[in-house]
Amino acid sequence: MRKVIVLMALVFLPGLSSPAKADLMAIWDFGPDATHYTLRPQDWYVDEEPTLMVSGAEYDINGKNGVAYRDAAGGYHAAGQGGAWDDVSGTASDAEWRMSVNTTGWQDMRIRWDYVSDAAGGNQGPTSFDFSYKVGLGSWVPVLNNQAIIRDDNWHEFSYDLSSITAIEGQSDVWFRVDDLDQADLNGDFKFDNLELTGVPEPCSVALLGIGVLVAFTRKRRFV
Q1: pTM of the model
Q2: Which residues lie below 8 Å from residue 118, measured CB to CB, with a gap of 6+?
Q3: Would you place residue 91 in the very low, low, confident or very high pLDDT band (cuts 50, 70, 90)?
């Protein structure tokens, strides 16, 4: 009698499954109130915790009242705090924020935030900003120069599609910067909230490491 045994194995490579929540990479909402104000992200779904640094032009470390928002993963963020400057002017150090993030496993990114630029009398906020990025210790690469800001005391959304910038995809150390937040004529307040980075997870990879075929032949022997 002959017996044939076939053994086949599919092996999944670790660390290549899709991130847990849709396309949300990270979001900052700055906390529910001044007591709990924070520059740490509210949620993140990247390999390491992203960072956010805010500086220049009399930055208000307690923030200002923010605006409610539902993020890309469906999470609700009630109106709490927002990042803010009390005095943005052309004569002071530029107001700016910098964000770092590990984009390993992500592509086709988009960045967005909400903002208010004061429009009251002689206390008017900035009218434009610059936006740039860099990878690791590389140089800053300009993306937007003097991008217009609506100045009318209302919340507005800014969103920018980063999908054409392939240099920032799948990198361990990517930086984004918003600076030159001034209008050089008046000085006023500016605040932002719900800073969110989204992306498309790279396709999940399944590797067929091997198909093992074991064929064993056994014969029933007759003893005489």
Answers
A1: 0.80
A2: 124, 125, 151, 153, 188, 189, 190
A3: low
d(CA 193, CA 66): 6
Bigger pLDDT: 98 vs 185 = 98
Contact 96, 146 (CB under 8 A): no
Only one residue has tokens 């052309």, namely 90
State how far the Cα of 206 lies from the Cα of 219, in Å rounded to an integer.
39
Answer yes or no: are the C-beta atoms of 99 and 51 closer than 8 Å.
yes
Contact 145, 137 (CB under 8 A): no
Read off the pLDDT of residues 42-85 as tens digits, 9 standing for 90 and up: 999 999 999 999 998 889 998 999 999 999 999 999 999 999 99
Which one of 3.20.20.80, 2.60.120.260, 2.70.40.10, 2.60.120.10 gives the CATH number of domain 9-210?
2.60.120.260
Burial string for 153-187 (b: 16+ CB within 10 Å, else e) reads eebeebeeebeebeebbeeeebbbbbbbbbbeebb
Query: Per this entry, what is the length of the chain?
Result: 224
